[in-house]
Design brief:
Keywords: Disulfide bond. The protein has three helices and eleven strands; from the N terminus they run αβββββαβαβββββ. By secondary structure, it is of the alpha+beta class. The protein folds into two domains: about 60 residues, Mannose-Binding Protein A, subunit A (Mannose-Binding Protein A, Chain A, Roll); about 120 residues, Mannose-Binding Protein A, Chain A. The strands form two sheets. Strands 5, 6, 7, 8, 9, 10 and 11 form a seven-stranded mixed β-sheet that branches.
Amino acid sequence: MKLNYTLKKETVNKAWIGLQRGGIGKWQWSLADQTFYRGRDTYRNWNSGEPNNTGGNEYCVEMYTSANNGTWNDATCNKFQYFLCYDDKLILINENLTWKEALRYCRNHHYDLVSVRTEEMQLWVKKVVQNASTEHVWLGLRHTCALGFWYWVTGEMICYQDWAPGNGTGFEDCSHEERTGAVQSGGDQQWISLPQSNTLNFICSTYEG
């Protein structure tokens, strides 16, 4: 669990998370955008015997680490302790750059051009590109003409893939320049192969993983 790993890395025993009991007694997440949860807003990971509402005023939730392995406890909201903030892992940059320029920008200002390793990440990408100003948006996807295959800028081979018909799975014309990968900002929002000198919006990832 990424949150549990974060707490252990910071040597913190527990921290606030964004779950609280509302006025009607229902547990609710603080992030209002329901598209973020994709049906998982009912997920709970309570510690044994929790929530128990000791004293009748435990309306907030803290997350444990160590022996409790990331489980949750309801607590009074007036305690002072560490807290966890949500940070979107994908950022759309509405500047038109070549693929190499986009790669340099992401590595200088964030982490890297995004690598779409899973279907879940592709769903995030599809949401982000809806606000793009170009028809296609750069991904961290590159083709090696010498060896004839696609790979992510992290050096990983492609396992999950979502190519548009006629793209990515056949011969790539490398006679003029290297080919790089982008995602459609509209339509089916699938991946396409483009010359690296095209200038497009692009997506940066904010951290590894």
